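Hi C.,

You asked whether I'd gotten around to modeling the 535-residue construct. I have! Everything is below, sequence then structure, no commentary in between.
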Amino acid sequence: MPIARVPMRLSPRGSGSAVSVCVRTCARTRARTRQCVSTVEPLETRRLFATVSWDGGPGGTGFDWNTPVNWSNDTIPTANDDVVISSASFGFVSVGSAPAANVARSVNCAVTLRIESAGALNISNASSVNNLFLAGAIGGSGDVTVSGLFTWIGGQMRGTGRLVLPALSIGTVNPGTGGAVTLARAIDNSGDLTLERGTFNMSFGASEVGTINNLAGGTFEVADVTGINSNVAGAAIHNAGQMIKSTTTTTIIQGSAGGGTLSLDNQAGGTVEIRQGALVFSLGGSFANAGATTLSTGTTLFVPTSLDGGGTLAVQDLGVVQVARLRQASVTLNGGSSLTLPANGASSNVSVLGSLSMSNAASFDLNDNDLMIDYPVAGPSPLAQVQTLINTARGNGTWNGATGLKSTSAKNAAQHNVTLGAMEATDFKTLNGAAATFDGLPPLDNSAALIKFTYYGDANFSGRVTFDDYVRIDLGFGQHLTGWANGDFNGSGVVNFDDYVLIDTAFNTQSATLGRAAASLSNSGEGETPLRERL
Protein backbone atom coordinates (compact mmCIF):
# COMPACT_ATOMS: atom_id res chain seq x y z
CA MET A 1 0.00 0.00 0.00
CA PRO A 2 1.52 3.38 -1.03
CA ILE A 3 2.20 5.70 1.79
CA ALA A 4 2.30 9.55 1.51
CA ARG A 5 4.47 11.65 3.82
CA VAL A 6 2.77 14.97 4.82
CA PRO A 7 5.04 17.40 6.76
CA MET A 8 3.45 19.37 9.62
CA ARG A 9 4.92 22.14 11.82
CA LEU A 10 3.62 22.39 15.35
CA SER A 11 4.53 25.20 17.68
CA PRO A 12 3.22 24.87 21.20
CA ARG A 13 2.02 28.11 22.84
CA GLY A 14 4.77 29.92 24.67
CA SER A 15 7.44 27.76 23.10
CA GLY A 16 10.64 29.20 21.70
CA SER A 17 10.96 26.39 19.12
CA ALA A 18 8.88 24.47 16.61
CA VAL A 19 8.52 20.69 16.29
CA SER A 20 8.66 19.31 12.78
CA VAL A 21 6.35 16.25 12.57
CA CYS A 22 6.16 13.67 9.84
CA VAL A 23 2.65 12.11 9.51
CA ARG A 24 2.32 8.83 7.56
CA THR A 25 -1.10 8.15 6.08
CA CYS A 26 -2.48 5.42 3.82
CA ALA A 27 -2.77 6.77 0.33
CA ARG A 28 -5.88 4.69 -0.26
CA THR A 29 -7.78 5.16 3.03
CA ARG A 30 -6.16 8.50 4.27
CA ALA A 31 -6.10 6.91 7.68
CA ARG A 32 -3.45 8.24 10.00
CA THR A 33 -1.12 5.45 10.95
CA ARG A 34 1.61 7.08 13.03
CA GLN A 35 3.47 10.30 13.96
CA CYS A 36 7.16 10.67 14.47
CA VAL A 37 9.22 13.58 15.80
CA SER A 38 11.86 14.39 13.24
CA THR A 39 13.72 17.65 14.05
CA VAL A 40 13.66 20.69 16.36
CA GLU A 41 14.20 24.11 14.71
CA PRO A 42 14.70 27.35 16.73
CA LEU A 43 12.42 30.36 16.07
CA GLU A 44 13.19 34.06 16.73
CA THR A 45 12.83 35.28 20.29
CA ARG A 46 9.78 37.50 20.75
CA ARG A 47 9.50 40.03 23.60
CA LEU A 48 6.05 40.54 24.99
CA PHE A 49 5.41 43.95 26.55
CA ALA A 50 2.97 44.32 29.41
CA THR A 51 1.19 47.27 31.03
CA VAL A 52 1.66 47.31 34.78
CA SER A 53 -0.55 49.60 36.83
CA TRP A 54 -0.10 51.00 40.32
CA ASP A 55 -2.82 49.97 42.81
CA GLY A 56 -1.10 50.79 46.08
CA GLY A 57 -1.46 47.32 47.57
CA PRO A 58 -4.38 45.69 49.43
CA GLY A 59 -5.28 48.89 51.28
CA GLY A 60 -4.40 51.21 48.43
CA THR A 61 -2.06 53.19 50.71
CA GLY A 62 1.32 52.00 49.47
CA PHE A 63 3.96 54.38 48.16
CA ASP A 64 7.07 52.21 47.66
CA TRP A 65 7.93 51.29 44.05
CA ASN A 66 9.88 48.26 45.32
CA THR A 67 6.96 46.63 47.16
CA PRO A 68 5.49 44.00 44.79
CA VAL A 69 1.94 44.11 46.13
CA ASN A 70 1.67 47.77 45.18
CA TRP A 71 1.45 46.72 41.52
CA SER A 72 -1.48 45.20 39.64
CA ASN A 73 0.42 41.98 38.96
CA ASP A 74 2.06 41.93 42.41
CA THR A 75 5.46 42.14 40.72
CA ILE A 76 7.99 44.98 40.58
CA PRO A 77 8.12 46.35 36.99
CA THR A 78 10.74 45.02 34.61
CA ALA A 79 12.44 46.41 31.51
CA ASN A 80 9.54 45.09 29.35
CA ASP A 81 6.81 46.84 31.33
CA ASP A 82 4.92 50.02 30.54
CA VAL A 83 4.19 51.55 33.93
CA VAL A 84 0.97 53.47 34.56
CA ILE A 85 0.48 55.38 37.81
CA SER A 86 -2.88 57.14 37.73
CA SER A 87 -3.15 58.01 41.41
CA ALA A 88 -1.53 57.38 44.78
CA SER A 89 -3.03 57.84 48.21
CA PHE A 90 -0.18 60.08 49.43
CA GLY A 91 0.24 61.84 46.09
CA PHE A 92 3.59 60.26 45.28
CA VAL A 93 5.41 57.03 44.49
CA SER A 94 8.90 56.57 45.88
CA VAL A 95 11.77 54.74 44.19
CA GLY A 96 14.08 53.68 47.00
CA SER A 97 17.18 51.61 47.49
CA ALA A 98 16.22 48.06 46.47
CA PRO A 99 16.85 46.89 43.84
CA ALA A 100 19.81 49.13 43.12
CA ALA A 101 18.61 50.04 39.63
CA ASN A 102 14.90 49.84 38.89
CA VAL A 103 13.87 49.58 35.25
CA ALA A 104 10.83 50.19 33.10
CA ARG A 105 10.10 50.37 29.40
CA SER A 106 8.07 53.53 29.96
CA VAL A 107 6.44 55.43 32.80
CA ASN A 108 3.20 57.39 32.66
CA CYS A 109 2.82 58.99 36.08
CA ALA A 110 0.01 61.42 36.96
CA VAL A 111 1.36 62.07 40.47
CA THR A 112 4.79 62.92 41.90
CA LEU A 113 7.54 60.42 41.18
CA ARG A 114 10.28 60.54 43.82
CA ILE A 115 13.68 58.99 43.14
CA GLU A 116 15.32 58.97 46.55
CA SER A 117 19.04 59.44 47.25
CA ALA A 118 19.71 55.68 47.21
CA GLY A 119 17.31 55.00 44.35
CA ALA A 120 17.82 54.72 40.60
CA LEU A 121 15.47 54.33 37.66
CA ASN A 122 16.36 53.49 34.05
CA ILE A 123 13.69 54.13 31.40
CA SER A 124 14.11 53.02 27.79
CA ASN A 125 11.14 54.66 26.04
CA ALA A 126 9.36 58.02 26.01
CA SER A 127 7.68 58.73 29.33
CA SER A 128 5.70 61.46 31.08
CA VAL A 129 5.63 62.48 34.72
CA ASN A 130 3.52 65.13 36.40
CA ASN A 131 6.12 66.06 39.03
CA LEU A 132 9.63 64.62 39.42
CA PHE A 133 11.67 64.79 42.60
CA LEU A 134 15.25 63.64 42.06
CA ALA A 135 17.78 62.88 44.77
CA GLY A 136 19.19 59.69 43.25
CA ALA A 137 19.83 58.67 39.64
CA ILE A 138 17.86 58.53 36.43
CA GLY A 139 19.14 56.99 33.21
CA GLY A 140 18.30 55.18 30.01
CA SER A 141 17.44 56.05 26.43
CA GLY A 142 13.89 57.23 27.00
CA ASP A 143 12.89 60.90 27.02
CA VAL A 144 11.16 61.92 30.24
CA THR A 145 8.74 64.85 30.04
CA VAL A 146 7.92 66.61 33.31
CA SER A 147 4.81 68.74 32.86
CA GLY A 148 4.67 70.21 36.36
CA LEU A 149 7.47 70.60 38.92
CA PHE A 150 10.98 69.23 38.56
CA THR A 151 12.98 69.37 41.78
CA TRP A 152 16.60 68.18 41.73
CA ILE A 153 18.47 68.12 45.03
CA GLY A 154 21.18 65.53 44.40
CA GLY A 155 22.40 62.59 42.36
CA GLN A 156 22.79 62.36 38.61
CA MET A 157 20.99 62.21 35.29
CA ARG A 158 22.68 60.10 32.62
CA GLY A 159 21.82 58.23 29.44
CA THR A 160 20.92 59.12 25.86
CA GLY A 161 17.37 60.19 26.64
CA ARG A 162 16.37 63.77 27.36
CA LEU A 163 14.67 65.46 30.26
CA VAL A 164 11.99 67.64 28.67
CA LEU A 165 10.52 70.64 30.47
CA PRO A 166 7.65 72.02 28.35
CA ALA A 167 6.12 75.48 28.58
CA LEU A 168 4.68 76.28 32.04
CA SER A 169 6.81 73.64 33.76
CA ILE A 170 9.13 74.77 36.56
CA GLY A 171 12.49 73.21 37.33
CA THR A 172 14.77 73.97 40.28
CA VAL A 173 18.23 72.55 40.92
CA ASN A 174 19.39 72.98 44.49
CA PRO A 175 21.80 70.49 46.05
CA GLY A 176 22.55 73.07 48.74
CA THR A 177 25.64 75.11 49.46
CA GLY A 178 28.64 72.84 48.97
CA GLY A 179 26.51 70.21 47.25
CA ALA A 180 26.64 69.06 43.65
CA VAL A 181 24.59 67.34 40.97
CA THR A 182 25.74 65.70 37.72
CA LEU A 183 24.14 66.07 34.30
CA ALA A 184 25.32 63.65 31.60
CA ARG A 185 22.28 63.76 29.34
CA ALA A 186 20.32 66.52 27.61
CA ILE A 187 17.77 68.87 29.14
CA ASP A 188 15.35 70.54 26.72
CA ASN A 189 13.78 73.50 28.50
CA SER A 190 10.80 75.49 27.26
CA GLY A 191 9.66 76.38 30.77
CA ASP A 192 11.53 77.91 33.72
CA LEU A 193 14.72 76.19 34.87
CA THR A 194 16.76 77.63 37.75
CA LEU A 195 20.15 76.55 39.09
CA GLU A 196 19.71 77.84 42.62
CA ARG A 197 22.91 76.94 44.44
CA GLY A 198 25.76 74.44 44.74
CA THR A 199 27.87 73.07 41.88
CA PHE A 200 26.51 71.85 38.55
CA ASN A 201 28.69 69.18 36.91
CA MET A 202 28.09 68.51 33.20
CA SER A 203 30.17 65.39 32.68
CA PHE A 204 30.50 61.86 34.02
CA GLY A 205 33.45 59.53 33.71
CA ALA A 206 35.73 59.78 30.68
CA SER A 207 33.20 60.28 27.89
CA GLU A 208 29.72 61.32 29.03
CA VAL A 209 28.72 64.98 28.78
CA GLY A 210 25.62 66.99 29.50
CA THR A 211 23.76 69.50 27.34
CA ILE A 212 21.25 72.17 28.26
CA ASN A 213 19.04 73.32 25.39
CA ASN A 214 17.18 76.43 26.54
CA LEU A 215 14.67 76.66 23.74
CA ALA A 216 12.84 79.72 22.42
CA GLY A 217 10.35 80.76 25.09
CA GLY A 218 12.35 79.07 27.86
CA THR A 219 13.99 80.83 30.81
CA PHE A 220 17.26 79.51 32.22
CA GLU A 221 18.30 81.25 35.43
CA VAL A 222 21.69 80.95 37.11
CA ALA A 223 21.44 82.09 40.72
CA ASP A 224 23.84 81.20 43.56
CA VAL A 225 25.59 78.43 41.63
CA THR A 226 29.34 78.77 42.16
CA GLY A 227 30.45 76.52 39.31
CA ILE A 228 29.19 74.92 36.10
CA ASN A 229 31.90 72.42 35.16
CA SER A 230 32.89 69.69 32.72
CA ASN A 231 35.84 67.31 32.85
CA VAL A 232 35.05 65.96 29.36
CA ALA A 233 35.18 67.77 26.02
CA GLY A 234 31.85 68.69 24.47
CA ALA A 235 29.55 69.84 27.27
CA ALA A 236 27.36 72.70 26.10
CA ILE A 237 24.64 75.20 26.96
CA HIS A 238 22.63 76.26 23.90
CA ASN A 239 20.45 79.27 24.51
CA ALA A 240 17.68 80.33 22.14
CA GLY A 241 15.53 81.74 24.94
CA GLN A 242 16.35 83.91 27.95
CA MET A 243 19.36 83.17 30.16
CA ILE A 244 19.68 85.22 33.35
CA LYS A 245 22.51 85.59 35.88
CA SER A 246 20.37 86.77 38.77
CA THR A 247 22.38 87.01 42.02
CA THR A 248 25.60 88.61 43.29
CA THR A 249 27.38 85.25 43.42
CA THR A 250 30.24 84.81 40.94
CA THR A 251 29.49 81.83 38.70
CA ILE A 252 32.43 80.16 36.97
CA ILE A 253 31.78 78.24 33.74
CA GLN A 254 34.76 76.03 33.03
CA GLY A 255 36.18 72.88 31.54
CA SER A 256 39.29 71.30 33.00
CA ALA A 257 43.06 71.25 32.64
CA GLY A 258 42.72 67.69 31.34
CA GLY A 259 40.85 68.72 28.20
CA GLY A 260 37.32 69.21 29.44
CA THR A 261 35.37 71.91 27.60
CA LEU A 262 32.10 73.69 28.30
CA SER A 263 30.63 76.18 25.84
CA LEU A 264 27.82 78.69 26.13
CA ASP A 265 26.23 79.27 22.73
CA ASN A 266 23.85 82.23 22.73
CA GLN A 267 21.98 81.73 19.49
CA ALA A 268 20.34 84.33 17.25
CA GLY A 269 17.18 85.43 19.04
CA GLY A 270 18.54 84.37 22.43
CA THR A 271 19.40 86.77 25.25
CA VAL A 272 21.98 86.53 28.02
CA GLU A 273 21.33 88.99 30.84
CA ILE A 274 23.87 89.48 33.61
CA ARG A 275 21.67 91.30 36.11
CA GLN A 276 23.86 90.85 39.18
CA GLY A 277 27.25 89.41 40.07
CA ALA A 278 29.76 88.01 37.63
CA LEU A 279 29.83 85.40 34.89
CA VAL A 280 33.39 84.10 34.53
CA PHE A 281 34.67 81.62 31.93
CA SER A 282 37.85 79.68 32.69
CA LEU A 283 39.86 76.54 31.82
CA GLY A 284 38.16 75.50 28.61
CA GLY A 285 35.01 77.50 29.14
CA SER A 286 33.93 79.52 26.09
CA PHE A 287 31.18 81.91 25.04
CA ALA A 288 29.80 82.52 21.53
CA ASN A 289 27.25 85.29 21.18
CA ALA A 290 25.02 85.42 18.10
CA GLY A 291 22.14 86.90 20.08
CA ALA A 292 22.02 89.78 22.55
CA THR A 293 24.13 89.97 25.71
CA THR A 294 23.54 92.73 28.25
CA LEU A 295 25.30 93.63 31.49
CA SER A 296 23.45 95.59 34.15
CA THR A 297 25.08 98.24 36.32
CA GLY A 298 28.14 97.00 38.19
CA THR A 299 28.20 93.47 36.76
CA THR A 300 31.11 91.56 35.23
CA LEU A 301 31.75 89.31 32.24
CA PHE A 302 35.15 87.64 31.89
CA VAL A 303 35.99 85.52 28.83
CA PRO A 304 39.67 84.51 28.48
CA THR A 305 39.09 83.50 24.85
CA SER A 306 37.23 85.21 22.04
CA LEU A 307 33.66 86.48 22.16
CA ASP A 308 32.62 85.84 18.57
CA GLY A 309 29.30 85.12 16.90
CA GLY A 310 28.19 88.42 15.40
CA GLY A 311 25.68 89.32 18.09
CA THR A 312 25.30 92.45 20.20
CA LEU A 313 26.92 93.43 23.51
CA ALA A 314 25.54 96.24 25.67
CA VAL A 315 27.17 97.23 28.99
CA GLN A 316 25.54 99.56 31.49
CA ASP A 317 27.21 101.99 33.91
CA LEU A 318 30.19 100.49 35.81
CA GLY A 319 29.81 97.16 34.03
CA VAL A 320 33.13 95.43 33.35
CA VAL A 321 33.94 93.18 30.37
CA GLN A 322 37.24 91.47 29.63
CA VAL A 323 37.62 89.27 26.55
CA ALA A 324 40.58 88.20 24.42
CA ARG A 325 38.85 89.17 21.16
CA LEU A 326 35.52 90.64 20.05
CA ARG A 327 33.69 89.87 16.83
CA GLN A 328 30.23 91.32 17.28
CA ALA A 329 27.67 93.23 15.23
CA SER A 330 27.63 96.02 17.79
CA VAL A 331 29.14 97.03 21.13
CA THR A 332 27.57 99.70 23.32
CA LEU A 333 29.37 101.02 26.40
CA ASN A 334 27.19 103.19 28.60
CA GLY A 335 28.02 105.32 31.64
CA GLY A 336 31.32 104.44 33.27
CA SER A 337 31.49 100.93 31.84
CA SER A 338 34.75 99.41 30.67
CA LEU A 339 35.88 96.88 28.08
CA THR A 340 39.41 95.44 28.11
CA LEU A 341 41.29 93.22 25.69
CA PRO A 342 44.34 91.78 27.52
CA ALA A 343 47.74 92.30 25.92
CA ASN A 344 48.30 89.66 23.28
CA GLY A 345 48.93 91.31 19.95
CA ALA A 346 48.67 88.28 17.68
CA SER A 347 47.07 89.12 14.34
CA SER A 348 44.51 86.36 14.98
CA ASN A 349 43.29 88.43 17.91
CA VAL A 350 42.14 91.34 15.77
CA SER A 351 38.63 92.35 16.82
CA VAL A 352 35.85 93.11 14.33
CA LEU A 353 32.75 95.17 15.14
CA GLY A 354 29.88 96.39 13.04
CA SER A 355 29.51 99.45 15.23
CA LEU A 356 30.95 100.93 18.42
CA SER A 357 29.06 103.33 20.66
CA MET A 358 30.71 104.75 23.79
CA SER A 359 29.61 107.32 26.33
CA ASN A 360 32.03 110.05 27.39
CA ALA A 361 32.66 108.21 30.67
CA ALA A 362 33.29 104.75 29.16
CA SER A 363 36.64 103.16 28.32
CA PHE A 364 37.79 100.53 25.83
CA ASP A 365 41.37 99.33 26.38
CA LEU A 366 42.82 97.67 23.28
CA ASN A 367 46.26 97.21 24.85
CA ASP A 368 48.39 95.92 21.91
CA ASN A 369 45.48 94.54 19.85
CA ASP A 370 44.00 95.76 16.58
CA LEU A 371 40.39 96.58 15.73
CA MET A 372 38.29 96.90 12.58
CA ILE A 373 34.90 98.63 12.59
CA ASP A 374 33.14 97.34 9.49
CA TYR A 375 30.42 99.97 9.17
CA PRO A 376 27.56 99.94 6.60
CA VAL A 377 28.37 100.85 3.02
CA ALA A 378 25.94 103.77 3.27
CA GLY A 379 27.93 105.11 6.23
CA PRO A 380 28.54 107.20 8.13
CA SER A 381 32.17 106.46 8.89
CA PRO A 382 33.04 106.29 12.61
CA LEU A 383 36.67 107.35 11.96
CA ALA A 384 36.29 110.88 13.35
CA GLN A 385 34.66 109.52 16.52
CA VAL A 386 37.39 106.88 16.84
CA GLN A 387 40.12 109.50 16.56
CA THR A 388 38.43 111.59 19.26
CA LEU A 389 38.28 108.55 21.55
CA ILE A 390 41.98 107.84 20.94
CA ASN A 391 42.91 111.47 21.63
CA THR A 392 40.93 111.41 24.87
CA ALA A 393 42.79 108.37 26.16
CA ARG A 394 46.20 109.40 24.73
CA GLY A 395 46.36 112.61 26.76
CA ASN A 396 49.01 114.28 24.54
CA GLY A 397 51.20 111.21 24.67
CA THR A 398 50.97 110.27 28.36
CA TRP A 399 48.12 107.79 27.82
CA ASN A 400 46.81 108.77 31.24
CA GLY A 401 43.25 109.32 30.06
CA ALA A 402 40.74 107.31 32.10
CA THR A 403 38.18 107.16 29.29
CA GLY A 404 38.11 106.73 25.54
CA LEU A 405 39.91 104.22 23.32
CA LYS A 406 42.90 103.30 25.47
CA SER A 407 46.15 101.37 25.17
CA THR A 408 47.75 100.39 28.46
CA SER A 409 50.50 98.73 26.42
CA ALA A 410 51.34 102.09 24.84
CA LYS A 411 51.29 103.76 28.24
CA ASN A 412 53.71 101.20 29.67
CA ALA A 413 56.10 101.09 26.67
CA ALA A 414 59.55 102.13 27.93
CA GLN A 415 60.41 104.08 24.76
CA HIS A 416 56.99 105.76 24.52
CA ASN A 417 57.15 105.14 20.79
CA VAL A 418 53.89 103.27 20.19
CA THR A 419 50.28 104.34 19.89
CA LEU A 420 46.93 103.54 18.30
CA GLY A 421 46.68 104.65 14.69
CA ALA A 422 43.41 104.88 12.77
CA MET A 423 42.64 105.11 9.06
CA GLU A 424 39.99 104.26 6.50
CA ALA A 425 40.16 100.99 4.60
CA THR A 426 40.30 102.99 1.38
CA ASP A 427 43.55 104.65 2.53
CA PHE A 428 44.96 101.30 3.59
CA LYS A 429 44.27 99.80 0.17
CA THR A 430 45.70 102.85 -1.59
CA LEU A 431 48.97 102.40 0.32
CA ASN A 432 49.15 98.60 0.26
CA GLY A 433 47.23 97.51 -2.82
CA ALA A 434 43.58 96.76 -3.55
CA ALA A 435 43.96 93.13 -2.44
CA ALA A 436 45.76 93.98 0.82
CA THR A 437 44.41 92.34 3.96
CA PHE A 438 44.35 93.67 7.50
CA ASP A 439 45.74 91.20 10.05
CA GLY A 440 44.75 88.29 7.82
CA LEU A 441 41.07 89.19 7.67
CA PRO A 442 39.14 88.65 4.42
CA PRO A 443 39.70 91.30 1.73
CA LEU A 444 38.51 94.73 2.79
CA ASP A 445 35.60 96.62 1.32
CA ASN A 446 35.56 100.41 1.24
CA SER A 447 33.54 100.89 4.42
CA ALA A 448 35.78 99.99 7.33
CA ALA A 449 37.76 101.94 9.91
CA LEU A 450 41.03 100.28 10.90
CA ILE A 451 42.66 100.82 14.31
CA LYS A 452 46.17 99.44 14.77
CA PHE A 453 48.59 99.28 17.67
CA THR A 454 51.85 100.30 16.04
CA TYR A 455 54.78 102.70 16.06
CA TYR A 456 54.29 106.41 15.73
CA GLY A 457 55.08 107.10 12.09
CA ASP A 458 53.91 103.76 10.68
CA ALA A 459 51.79 105.53 8.07
CA ASN A 460 51.01 102.42 6.00
CA PHE A 461 50.33 100.06 8.95
CA SER A 462 53.24 97.75 8.06
CA GLY A 463 54.18 97.34 11.71
CA ARG A 464 57.46 99.29 11.37
CA VAL A 465 58.75 102.70 10.32
CA THR A 466 60.46 102.71 6.94
CA PHE A 467 61.41 105.06 4.11
CA ASP A 468 57.86 104.77 2.74
CA ASP A 469 56.48 106.34 5.90
CA TYR A 470 58.79 109.35 5.55
CA VAL A 471 57.50 109.78 2.01
CA ARG A 472 53.95 109.87 3.39
CA ILE A 473 54.63 112.48 6.08
CA ASP A 474 56.55 114.67 3.65
CA LEU A 475 53.64 114.50 1.21
CA GLY A 476 51.13 115.30 3.95
CA PHE A 477 53.19 118.22 5.23
CA GLY A 478 53.82 119.65 1.77
CA GLN A 479 50.19 119.39 0.63
CA HIS A 480 48.62 120.31 3.97
CA LEU A 481 46.88 116.95 4.27
CA THR A 482 45.69 115.35 7.46
CA GLY A 483 44.95 111.88 8.81
CA TRP A 484 47.22 109.08 9.99
CA ALA A 485 48.05 107.91 6.45
CA ASN A 486 49.35 111.40 5.65
CA GLY A 487 51.55 111.83 8.72
CA ASP A 488 49.20 113.19 11.39
CA PHE A 489 50.41 110.72 14.01
CA ASN A 490 49.17 112.56 17.10
CA GLY A 491 45.65 113.15 15.79
CA SER A 492 45.92 116.92 16.05
CA GLY A 493 44.35 117.52 12.66
CA VAL A 494 47.52 118.89 11.08
CA VAL A 495 50.91 117.53 10.02
CA ASN A 496 53.63 119.57 11.78
CA PHE A 497 56.91 119.46 13.67
CA ASP A 498 55.40 117.35 16.46
CA ASP A 499 54.65 114.54 14.04
CA TYR A 500 58.23 114.61 12.71
CA VAL A 501 59.48 114.27 16.29
CA LEU A 502 57.25 111.25 16.80
CA ILE A 503 58.30 109.47 13.59
CA ASP A 504 61.98 110.18 14.22
CA THR A 505 61.77 108.89 17.79
CA ALA A 506 60.03 105.72 16.70
CA PHE A 507 62.41 105.20 13.80
CA ASN A 508 65.44 105.48 16.08
CA THR A 509 64.05 103.29 18.86
CA GLN A 510 62.14 100.61 16.95
CA SER A 511 65.31 98.53 16.53
CA ALA A 512 68.13 97.74 18.86
CA THR A 513 70.72 98.17 16.09
CA LEU A 514 71.49 100.86 13.50
CA GLY A 515 71.70 98.14 10.85
CA ARG A 516 68.00 97.51 11.01
CA ALA A 517 67.25 101.22 10.75
CA ALA A 518 69.52 101.46 7.72
CA ALA A 519 67.67 98.59 6.10
CA SER A 520 64.45 100.53 6.58
CA LEU A 521 65.92 103.60 4.89
CA SER A 522 66.91 101.53 1.86
CA ASN A 523 63.34 100.14 1.83
CA SER A 524 64.72 96.61 1.64
CA GLY A 525 63.18 95.64 4.96
CA GLU A 526 66.08 93.26 5.58
CA GLY A 527 66.73 92.80 9.26
CA GLU A 528 63.43 94.41 10.27
CA THR A 529 61.28 92.65 12.84
CA PRO A 530 57.52 93.35 13.12
CA LEU A 531 56.50 95.46 16.08
CA ARG A 532 54.91 92.84 18.33
CA GLU A 533 57.93 90.56 18.19
CA ARG A 534 60.13 93.30 19.61
CA LEU A 535 57.97 94.73 22.38
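If it helps when you're writing up: The radius of gyration is 36 Å.

Thanks,
B.
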